[in-house]
Amino acid sequence: MMFKKELLFFLFATLLLQFSCKRDLTIPSWEADVMSPLVSTSLKIGNLLTDTLVQTESDSSLTIVYQQDLFTLRIDTLLEIEDTSYSYVAKLDSIEITDFSAVDSITLSEIGTSNPLFGFLLASLVGDPLTPAEISAFQNLSFSNYVDFSSFFESATFNEGELTMEITNDLPLDIENITIELQNASDGSVFGSVTIPLIEAYGTSSDVIPLAGQYVEGEIIFNVISFDLTSDCIPVCPTIELEDGIIFSLTQSDLDIESATAIFPEQSIIYRELETSFGLDGLWLNEVTVKTGNFVFNIVNTLEDTLFLEYVLPNSWDSNGNLFRATAICPPKSIVDSVFTKLDGFTLDLTGQNLDKINTMYHILEGNIKYTGEITSLSKQDSVEVYFSIQDIVPEHAVGHILNDIHAFGPNTVDLDLFNQISNSPINALSFSSINLDLEISNEIGVNISASITNITSTNDNNNSSFSTSLDPVSVASPEDNLPIVPLTSYLIFPNNDARGIIETIPNQISYSAQVEINPLATITPPSPQNSGTDFIYYGSGISTKLNLNIPLNVIAQGLVLSDTVNFTMERNENLSKIENGSLNLIIDNGFPIEANVQIYLMNNSNVIIDSLFASKQNIQAAVIDMSTNKVEDKMKSELFIPLSKEKIDNLYETYKMMIFVDFSTSSSSTGAKIYSDYGIDVKVVGDFTYPVDDAIK
Amino acid sequence: MKRKIFTFLLLGLSSLQSYSQLNRYYGFEEMDYNQNGSFITIDGGFDINSNALTNSFLKESSIGTELKDLNSSNHKSEKNLTGYDLQTSLVFGETKEEFLGISNAGYFIGIKTRDHLDISYTKDVFDLIFYGNKPFLGIEANLGPLSFQRIAFEQIQFGFFKSISNEKRTITTALGLALVKGRSGISVNLSDQTSLYTQERAEYIDFSMDGSISYTDQDNNGALDMNGIGISTDIYTKIDFENGDNINISISDFGTIKWNSSSTNYTNNESFHFDGIEIEDVLTINDSIFTDINKDSIQNNILGPASLSSFSTVLPAIIQIEGTKKLSNDKIYSTIGLRHQLNSNYIPYFYFINKYKFSDKILGGVKIAYGGYGKINLGLELSTSFKKILIVLGSSDVDALFDSNGLIGTSYYLSLHKLF
User: What is the mean pLDDT of residues B258-270?
Assistant: First the structure.
């Protein structure tokens, strides 16, 4: 019992000790006066003007080099070859089948089979001379025979054509009054007949059977309806043999088939030669090399045979010597859409079929069927629809005559950003020892041009100043037609006073009106021959103009105002919020021989100024120029104070932008201050705070 | 705030602990720790003192309030000491006629906590910390030599003791071994080559550091967190003479802690020149000007690269020797003693205590001392005993109550002992 009591006491005390232990030392709080550099930076002229704007001269002095694009004329936009489409709906030009003919014969014995009485007599008469009486009995004989042309066609209807029937009498008897009909074997319909009065013994007869409008099958019956065998028996009557007979042949000629069912041989069924002219305003082109483009086939084939199409541009080759050729295959009774063939890299001849035109393309379309060994039907009433187009042509290069043309530009206005930060300066606040200003005109197209500025006006909206002038035309020759194109350049140089007038307004806008004349030397009469031109245009080429400004940095400034607005955000910071009071001290070592007065305003998210960083405008003293070297040797130190009250810190939290105002003034020297590349300004921000120290230091 | 007061009252207690405390209190017949039986003791103490900081400053510092009157602090010396100890212990023990075959012996088991801080610093360190660097514009602040350590740890202790008696004296000897759970450790040692110079416009700051800094993970140093492990021992001997006089000799917390490998270490003997963070584009102003200047970036620049590795700390062991003379009528007891903390900036602490027994149950004492982290201090102690319960309440710095601006520390101690 006693032990339990001790144990309980022990456990209770243990728990009490553990949970009453302080977790950590508690840090007291106090305030300390802290001064520390916070940030440092060095500004050279390159920080204010981008490196591309500043050029260092051999004596380390600086020159502002600025370029502003004014306008560009892309001549290749004139060279727009519109999509060209063709539709060709046609029936077949011709239908060809393989030439056919047949030769057959019939003997007296076979004739006897068809004529029983004659056959009976014939057996007793063979080998002996005939008598007139016997011969007189050979009347009204007939026979028929099958002629098979089905290996050539199964059936056909002819517009034109004929069958030449040749009969050779190989008997010692004359054949008289022979009547023959040609019949289609299937129904016995007669498509031709002929009557021959006489074929002398061992003689030959030739007759023509017209086929125009006839339907003829491949299997026909050569039907000899009646004939007589006769003889004058002078000096004696002849002797006949069973093998004696008649030979006949059929040969087609001059066929024009309307329709046929046959095994057709390979044959051309479409052939068209075309010339197409492009409307190219101001351009007489001999040839165009295609950068990108397509030839497209769309085909509707109602034939029962496969159609093979080929499109050819004669005289249009690629760099490897390949002629442009597009093909398409359209199966029987079907439609084929969008068969593309690239035109990229081909140089299209635009001189037409006879090479004497301009802007004209010559092309050939041909359609064929091939021998397949299968029976099909063709009719001239069958149709073939062929649609083809030349699409999306982007020319790489074009050669020809570029005709005289005048392009006017403006009045246009471009924003000038060079002086943005000082555009609030009053008139005459800035002066340079010299200013070089010109308009650079570059010609990349293969023809002479001339350009002029009819008006150029610099404007400063902030101080309401402006200056206007104009420049006379200048010519720019054609560059050489070799890749890469090296543009030829000419300059319109502003006289010194005009250059000063334009720049010393501290412009934020340039307005201009300009004119560019293409091929100014061309006569009004078109050149002859038309396709003799050697002017050229390359894809992407054109005429460009730039305003070039070159100012040696030897400046006289009196109250030149630099103003800029920079974004600023400051997240709430626990440590910063603890600052009771203090200041930010800006220690500035100025290496420029320019004095500045600076103020920075804090703006909220509504762009309303809510505070200023400095209590009043602060002065940054100019560095002194050593008269022996005419350069700054030592920087001038200035100290600027930014009081940091709690209110100011709260305002900084609310700040979204800072508006910086600095006005610059050089010394009163009329020669101005020359700026060198090693000039700079060092800025150091030192914090001077009464800072509460508490748990934050742990 | 309630928690602070509660903690302060409960633990603002005695400076002695563990078994060595047992026989330190005398004058009450019923509190005979050598008699057979068991006992439980709770001891606690809070002591902060300095030879440079005033009592009011220490008090404000210790309770984490705002420091209002820095000017009155006396910190003119080039070597200033400040120390702090918060100790608690809970011990259960038993005395037997025979323990493990040994006669007149016993055992004890207990838990202890200790939070120790001591620092030796120059005047410039104090001024720099509490006034900032602005008074040092154009002047070099000497920041070394500087020695600072803070150790917080808990112990589980087991020990035994034995008494040997003859007609003239009784000698009691105790030995305790403890497993130490390290909670938090900070060690800073900077040589006299450590200085800070702020240019007169504060355009730049030069900091030269020669020394080392080590500390454990300061984000995880709660009562249940463990950032190191070690062992320690306590040794105690007391001689009770027949005439009532006695001599106590004790060593406590003699040991070491090895902190874990998550500890941060800096060793640097280089100079750091800071003239602001260089920014490329001053026209792009934003708050990175301020956010870039944070504690970590400055720390990295000044201290150099940190390494994560373990380090060891020798515990600030306490050695104490005292003798007590019983004077006439069993009413007065005079004690003279010497106390010292090893491995710290402590200087030997001499004290003299005179106690008077007002009755069988009440004993009062007056103490005068010199040393430690402070100078001369006056203490009072009141103890009472009833039903084998001993309660002791005292302070070694009661004079601070009368002179808040004096260089007097603050300490309280309380012991609760119960014999069964």
Answer: 90
- Give me the residues of B, 246-275, that contact A with CB < 8 A: 274-275
Mean pLDDT of B238-252: 90
- Amino acid at the residue B386: F
For the residues of B32-70, what is the DSSP string, one character each? -TTSSEEEEEEEEEEEEEESSS-HHHHHHHHTT-B----
Residues of B in contact with A656 (CB under 8 A): none
**Cβ-defined contact of B222 to A25 (cutoff 8 Å):** no
Q: In this complex, which of B63, B113, B132 lies closest to A17 when CB atoms are compared? A: B113
Secondary structure in 3-state letters for A13-66:
HHHHHHHHCCCCCCCCEEEEEEEEEEEEEEEEHHHHCCHHHEEECCCCEEEEEE
pLDDT tens sequence across A367-413? 888 888 888 888 888 888 899 999 999 999 999 988 888 889 889 99
Contacts of A39 in chain B (CB under 8 A): 276-279, 289, 292-293
Phi, psi of A601 (to 5 degrees): -105, 145
Whether B184 and chain A come into contact, CB under 8 Å, resolves to yes
CB contacts of B278 in chain A (<8 Å) are: 39-41
Strand partners of residue B311: none
Q: Which residue of B has its CA nearest to A582?
A: B134
pLDDT band at A3 (very low <50, low <70, confident <90, very high): very low
Q: Residue A362: what residue type?
A: Y
Compare A279 and B31 and report the one with higher pLDDT: A279
Please state the rounded mean pLDDT for residues B72-98: 83
Q: Which residue of B has its CA nearest to A575?
A: B294
Other beta carbons within 10 angstroms of residue A441's beta carbon come to 27
Radius of gyration of chain A (CA): 54
Nearest CA distance, B65 vs chain A (angstrom): 5
Q: What is the pLDDT of residues B9-46, one digit of tens each?
A: 333 333 334 445 555 566 676 677 777 788 898 988 88
Question: Can you tell me the distance from the alpha carbon of A200 to that of A167, in angstroms, rounded to the nearest whole number?
Answer: 11
Q: Residue type at B224?
A: L
Selecting from B6, B132, B283 the residue whose C-beta is nearest the C-beta of A20 gives: B6
Q: Do A10 and B287 touch (CB under 8 A)?
A: no
C-alpha span between A255 and B265 (Å, rounded): 112
Residue A432 CA from chain centroid, whole number: 49
Q: Sheet of A488-493: strands edge to edge?
A: A54-56, A62-73, A543-552, A436-443, A488-493
